[in-house]
Amino acid sequence: MPRSQKNDNFIDKTFTVLADIVLKVLPTSKEEKEAFAYYRDGMSAQSEGEYAEALENYYEALNLEEDPYDRSYILYNIGLIYASNGEHVKALEYYHKALELNARLTQALNNIAVIYHYQGIKASNTNNPSIAKSMFDKAAIYWQQAIYLAPNNYIEAQNWLKTTGREIQSEGY
After folding, report:
1. Which function does this protein serve (predicted)?
2. What is the per-residue pLDDT across 126-154, written as a single tens digit (0 to 9) for each?
3. Of 19, 30, 60, 102, whose Cβ has the fewest other Cβ atoms within 10 Å?
4. Which of 10-24, 39-53, 63-77, 159-173 has the lowest mean pLDDT?
5. CB pairs under 8 A, 24+ apart, for 114-121?
6. CA–CA separation, 44 vs 66, rounded Å?
7. DSSP code of 126?
8. Of all residues in the chain, what percent carry a pLDDT higher than 90?
9. Domains in the chain, please, with CATH?
10. pTM, whole model, 2 decimals?
């Protein structure tokens, strides 16, 4: 049974119904419709913590989806799963792949910064100041890019940049 038929949550059911209507109305190819169905099922599985199932659906969606913009969000969601499982190297790989297709995906920029910041804290806690500085500097670069694209977002990152002397540069990215 497709995941879209076993949603118990009202909002998930509503989204599924609306998505099915949009799929029927829009002039899209069979592959695009299948890709969206897999993507939708992946999001549903991910929201329920069923990460293995979500990954299966996202990989199927990637095989079918041709639009770079849509592929960027699939790659981003794969990165989210790896990050939530503590697989930061894989998460970074997928976030970077997403950014190659959609350089304005501020969520990916933010999540890359969060991973580097976390690595900086870990290095700091194990008395590796040079690694910590390097990781914090990398985090700053990605947060600066995200904030440049979305200046009203990432307030905590903006505060961190100010308090650590890593102010946002006025040049564009």
Report:
1. Seems to be required for the assembly of the photosystem I complex.
2. 999 999 999 999 999 999 999 999 999 99
3. 30
4. 10-24
5. 114/139, 115/83, 115/88, 115/91, 116/142, 117/160, 118/88, 119/88
6. 22
7. T
8. 74
9. 29-102 (1.25.40.10), 104-168 (no CATH)
10. 0.83
